[in-house]
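Putative proline/betaine transporter (Agromyces albus), 463 aa
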Amino acid sequence: MSSTTSASTSAAPSAPANPRNRVVLASLIGTTIEFYDFYVYATAAVLVFPHLFFPAGDPTTALLQSFAIFGAAMVARPVGAVIFGHLGDKHGRKATLVGALLTMGVATFLIGLLPTYLMVGWFAPLLLVILRIAQGFALGGEWSGAALVATENAPEGKRAWYGTFPQLGAPIGFIIANGLFLIIAALLPSDDPNSSLPSAAFLDWGWRIPFLFSVVMVIVGLWVRLRLVESTAFSKASKEGKLTKLPLASVFKNHWKQLILGTFFMLATYVLFYLMTTFSLGYGTKPTDVPVPGLGYSYTTFVLMLIGGVVFFGIFTLLSGPWADRWGRRKTLIWVTLGIIVFGLLWVPFLSAGFPGVMAWLIVGFALMGMTFGPMGALLPELFPTNVRYTGSGISYNVSSILGAAVAPFIGTALWAAGGGSPFWVGIYLSVMAVLTLIALIVSKETKDVDYESAGLESSAVL
């Protein structure tokens, strides 16, 4: 078989099936909505659920229980990747993406209607777990489909740039979700100015608004996605009879090395992101005069600081695409991962320097997040041929969520408590996970020149 580079240069590139503006909007708006829904829960997991969905007791225990439910969604994500991946590789990207978006929207909306622990006892957290699993199931099918819409419609030499559009949905969704919580909290100020708890009105009904608002965003997303047509790559594979009856079996039989590499490529990205968002919100707003102290910022102040950091996440997500197209995905990510390792070792100096240090910590952390997350929109799909691309990239992306995102806030909180409030071991944990990602990158090969329309292509990413 000829090399992937020669295969990609010997044939003229096919014209994209969808206009550029439609591709950008469809890939961006869907992931924005999905990540919005996910972050609404993540914020509520720190701010609301420990108070409303668990019995009164130790606040740290309640927070850990809330994070455990947060992690349940990550376990459901690979299942969603398998189911939606099978549908996407058999029947096309468009209908599958619509199904994922509807599943996420309905689950998020229903969370906004749940009774609390005081109303129905342990039935409340049980319902929360079920709907949280549904969220994870939906997100498991969303990301890879959105990435394929972007990259399978990308012009030649710009796959990583187009692959950043669905990635940009993460910072935008975060800003919208937390911004809405911030507005509601400001309109319903705390009953006690000296308390870090939200107001009684916020805990009673205000927290429900962001969940219920998701239905509006889903309607907009559906309108955009229903206007898509299938990509040239998928249509070509379908016409040539190269679609696989059982994508899951095929990807495990023929592409298991790519699955392993892709999972570890994403590990540092997941750990970094969920430490910088979910864990940091709990750490940043925890009082300083308790047995396991935090930074002592008010909720409003720290969320504004987070949003400021996430702006850099968005900026560097966009910048990472052209860099990865120019220098290659592997080289770009090796340098970024080295930066994450160093960043994890510097948590204590950053967080011991007062407000300037904390703000610098957020900016550096989220800038690194953008640089590592952006190229993944192209890199993971490039590991797999068209006929198993949805399944393969989705499984790698979402299995990594179990190893990274599902446990990162939980482990971070446990290490923070074990260290008596010091973030030192949390940073070490990040660095160790980044070392595993670095090893995976070192043993892999570059993918930017693979022939993306070849349904039978064996990836060049494995030694």
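DSSP finds 22 helices and no strands in the chain. Confidence is low (pLDDT under 50) at residues 1-14, 455-463. ok done for today
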